[in-house]
Design a protein that fits this description.
The chain is α/β, with parallel strands linked by helices. It is built from 23 helices and 44 strands. Helix 5 links the parallel strand 5 and strand 6. Bound molecules: beta-D-glucopyranose (BGC). Beta-D-glucopyranose (BGC) binds next to loops.
């Protein structure tokens, strides 16, 4: 039997290395690295509450330990001013962390401790330098706002920095944030060093400290441009609109905009990041057939070892289309170079990769990637602004690189930005966007897949297809219409058919389907580690922004290959990540999950993650396909985007992930693009993804997504439109065998508006996918043995979770007298909810503790807190506390988490209040 072994310590070490490679140093006036043996005064109330990630599905990894920056510094031998630490701890007693309630309910930041001059003076007397921490979170359902406590600092935070400045000669500011924030404070407080440490997962504090102490020289580079203010980003006038969001800035996103139109608005350019050493980059290049062959010789000319990132940008001629002045086309990172050491990085850049998408036909080639005639320039350097010209090439004739079909075109007229020369540079001009000419319905009707005549069960099992004894067609022919309607229903969340606490089951979700030997595959969030809602501990990875800032695909792949083994060990087939939407605006709450404002960096990061996961036998799900660039109104907003901006910016990363990363699982979005909710978009899921890019995997919706037909309102039951589009699986149905939420698959089949051939094609996509996963190997008894060495006992899964499900119709009482209430303890149980809706939940307990004791019990349902039952001493009498909670899934894994001991607990009762 095959055996896969990883060492947990190697996993921790690799993630720590990733953090040290991804933090970005923006200012350094000699304050860093910290000098050996120094005492640091650590300011900021979050010093012991490091944000390991943002919030929502991408942040709900249960970990046994998160190393804060304070932990990391202490581990690195740095002394922390103890009196100051005590002052923060004392303040915290009366000012505990505010957790917030429910989905998207966590505050973006925590109230800062007001810092007095007196305390700062005392701290300065006993320390050599100051390190101040500013921390932010955000996430699903929760964009940032351009206000104090969110994108900007609060008055108290700013006062803290100013007070520290008055009393310390050396002051470093660390930003423990998901994405970029307003940086005007840097000039205001004249900080000596400023570093984005992002959200580095459970080892974030350790990797950060490696850079602070100088064990590692910083080499992270910004994956976004930092402008003077949030309103400087070209999408600012549209971002946050909840109805129609016009992408009028078109392809001029991030540095493409700033370098072309508004250089003076940039505080820190894309690709920028300081090091403790210095590098010299010399380039030599020549044409080699259809490619530019480029060597960058990087020499360390400073005083300590370090790594450098070489970035290659191109400038295409303005031509008829108009172009940004810079676009990233390649990057690579050196090994660690000792002083005076050098390394040559080699690049081959295909000229075709500098093509633009002509969506109007202005070059005479509508819907083609074209190289317009004229001069092309390549720039090489260590950020977009300072990159220097390396080579020029002339293209004599406009040439078509590839001819595609019109897809996903806007139907609503609007104007988009384009550069217009004003002699010295470019100013903003606007032009009308080309609109749709092709009818997607006619296109689908003209390409209907043939129906496979149904045969009934001929005894062919999926393993026969795998072993090539039978073809997929013969297998699919056996499925009844009922089977076909069930296989497109993903089941969850928390389906008992797969690993407890995960997001969904797909494939063999009914008895009938499983009789055909179709295994149940399992999906789990994603992207920064495994979200296991029943409390199972998992590894929490650095966030997407940090990982992109590494500019290191080799390390990315190595890290995700380790993550892949952990995922496989939990019997999960698909991680619901990488998240790869574009950082169109810095206020997007989910930017922490995504990589960058640049599609090439986004695509190459995703491809590296996928290769890592694949090397361990599991799949990543690239999401959200596409245009999910804000959380505000994400279910209802229509993103109105030109074909060119889609091709060059919003689809480009996905294209790279499919073509270079071999993606085989895709998640569409909640929202709509050009009037069509993506889950029902034939153009997106069939024409672009499969016909053009050659994708042969399966596509799932986002959880409880809406679907529509052109001009029709959105709804959650139009599975027929989803199936026609070749979005293969609806995520999620409470029970795949009946789908109590209702869908129109069989009625549409009967009415002839959906064909059997289309459903059979969905079924084949799903079966082809699941057949090549560990789920199939488990079914066939050929699953490799997975061994994780040195995993600390507290990280081990809660006894492989034999979660016991109780049926909840109208009322249910679960006795808990056998449960021991201890600090940090938990009790996990499952509910099979027959009446989906709102329930009254009552916990009954007693205690002999004092009347002012606080003993909270938190009820988590599918991973997020849905009620805190705080008991005090009850004088030994039973007392009941009630809250209402939403029970919106059929199968719900619940967890009671105990913050204190001292309680005796009797039972938990559920009473139905109303349905939904
Ligand atoms: C998110 C997805 C996530 C899914 C399952 C949705 O709310 O948008 O990114 O994978 O939930 O948790």
């Amino acid at each position: 039997m095959e055996k896969i072994t990883i060492d947990w310590n190697d996993y921790l070490k690799t993630a720590r290395e990733a953090v040290s490679q991804g933090v970005v140093l923006l200012e350094n006036n000699g304050a860093l690295p910290l000098s050996e043996g120094c005492t640091v005064a650590l300011f900021g109330r979050m010093q012991d509450h490091y944000y390991k990630s943002g919030t929502g599905s991408g942040g709900m990894v249960n970990v046994s330990k998160v190393w804060s920056i304070a932990d990391g510094l202490e581990e690195g031998g740095v002394r922390l001013n103890a009196a100051l630490r005590d002052a923060y701890a004392a303040w915290e007693k009366d000012n505990p962390i505010e957790a917030g309630v429910g989905w998207g309910g966590e505050p973006w930041s925590q109230r800062e401790m007001p810092l007095s001059d007196e305390l700062a003076v005392k701290a300065a007397a006993g320390s050599d330098c100051a390190v101040c921490i500013i921390a932010r979170t955000a996430g699903e359902e929760q964009d940032q706002s351009d206000e104090g406590g969110s994108y900007r600092l609060t008055e108290t935070e700013l006062d803290m920095l100013k007070t520290v400045r008055r009393h310390f000669d050396r002051m470093t500011v660390l930003l423990n944030v998901g994405g970029i924030i307003d940086m005007s404070f840097v000039r205001e407080v004249r900080a000596d060093a400023v570093m984005y440490v992002w959200q580095g997962g459970m080892v974030g504090g350790l990797g950060t400290a490696d850079v602070l102490t100088g064990r590692v020289s910083p080499s992270g580079k910004l994956s976004d441009t930092i402008a003077r203010s949030a309103s400087d980003y070209p999408s600012a006038p549209y971002f946050g609109n909840t109805k129609r969001n016009f992408y009028s800035e078109d392809i001029y996103v991030g540095y493409r905009y700033f370098e072309t139109f508004a250089k003076d608005k940039v505080l820190y350019p894309f690709g920028f990041g300081l090091s403790y050493t210095k590098f010299d980059i010399k380039t030599a290049s020549h044409m080699n057939g259809d490619s530019v062959s480029l060597d960058a010789v990087v020499r360390n000319i400073g005083g300590c070892s370090g790594r450098e990132v070489v970035q290659v940008y191109y400038e295409a001629p303005q031509g008829k289309l108009g172009k940004p002045l810079r676009a990233l086309c390649a990057y690579a990172k050196t090994a660690t170079l000792a002083p005076n050491e050098q390394q040559t990085l080699h690049f081959d850049i295909a000229v075709n990769d500098m093509a633009s998408f002509d969506d109007s036909g202005v070059t005479g080639n509508a819907d083609c990637w074209v190289l317009e005639r004229g001069r092309y320039l390549l720039y090489v350097g260590s950020d977009v602004r300072s990159a220097e010209k390396a080579i020029e090439l002339d293209i004599g004739e406009t040439t078509v690189v590839s001819r595609l079909s019109e897809a996903c075109a806007p139907v609503e007229p609007f104007e988009r930005l384009r550069p217009e020369s004003d002699g010295a540079g470019f100013r903003a001009a606007f032009e009308p966007v080309p609109l749709a000419r092709v009818d997607m319905c006619e296109r689908r009707a003209a390409a209907l897949p043939p129906e496979i005549p149904q045969t009934g069960d001929r005894g062919i099992r999926l393993c026969d297809v795998l072993n090539r004894r039978n073809g997929m067609e013969d297998f699919i022919a056996q499925l009844s219409d009922e089977d076909l309607s069930c296989i497109i229903r993903g089941e969850g969340m928390g389906s008992p058919k797969v690993t407890p606490g995960t997001a969904a089951a797909f494939g063999g979700v009914t008895d009938s389907l499983s009789r055909f030997g179709i295994p149940c595959g399992c999906c789990d969030d994603g992207p920064s580690g495994m979200r296991l809602d029943c409390g199972t501990k998992a590894f929490s990875l650095p966030n997407g922004t940090l990982l992109a800032c590494m500019f290191d695909t080799e390390l990315m792949q190595r890290l995700f290959s380790l993550a892949g083994v952990e995922i496989a060990a939990n019997n999960v087939e698909c991680l619901l990540g990488p998240g790869m939407n574009i950082h169109r605006h810095p206020l997007n709450g989910r930017n922490f999950e995504y990589f960058s404002e640049d599609p090439y960096l986004t695509g190459t990061c995703a491809a590296a993650q996928l290769k890592g996961l694949h090397s361990s036998g599991v799949e990543g799900t690239i999401k959200h396909f596409c245009g999910n660039n804000q959380e505000t109104g994400r279910h209802v907003v229509d993103s109105i985007i030109s074909k060119r901006a889609l091709r060059e910016i919003y689809l480009k990363g996905f294209e790279i992930a499919v073509k270079q990363g071999g993606a085989r699982s895709v998640m569409t979005t909640y929202g709509s693009v050009n009037g069509l909710w993506t889950a029902g978009s034939y153009d997106l899921c069939t024409v672009v993804l499969r016909d053009e890019w050659g994708f042969d995997g399966f596509v799932m919706t986002d959880w409880w997504a809406d679907i529509n037909e052109r001009g029709m309102p959105q709804n959650r039951s139009n599975f027929a439109q989803m199936a026609r589009a070749q979005n293969d699986v609806y995520m999620t149905c409470p029970d795949s065998s009946v789908n109590t939420c209702g869908d129109n698959t069989l009625s549409s089949l009967a009415a002839g508006t959906l064909t059997r051939g289309e459903l059979q094609r969905n079924a084949a996509n799903i079966c082809r996918f699941v057949m090549n996963t560990y789920a199939m190997k488990r079914l066939c008894g050929s699953m490799p043995e997975i061994e994780i060495l040195n995993r600390p006992a507290e990280d081990e899964p809660i006894e492989e979770l034999q979660v016991e499900f109780s049926v909840l119709e109208n009322t249910l009482s679960i006795p808990l007298d056998h449960v021991k209430v201890e600090r940090g303890g938990q009790f996990v149980f499952g509910l099979d909810v027959r009446n989906i809706g709102i329930f009254n939940v009552t916990v009954t307990a007693k205690s002999n503790a004092s009347a002012t004791a606080q003993m909270p019990i938190t009820l988590f349902t599918t991973g997020f807190p849905s009620g805190v039952f705080t008991f005090s001493g009850t004088g030994g009498e039973w007392r009941s506390i009630s809250h209402t909670a939403n029970m919106y899934s059929r199968f719900i894994t619940c967890r009671l988490s105990f913050a204190q001991g001292g309680l005796e607990i009797k039972d938990i009762r559920f009473e139905f209040v109303k349905g939904v």
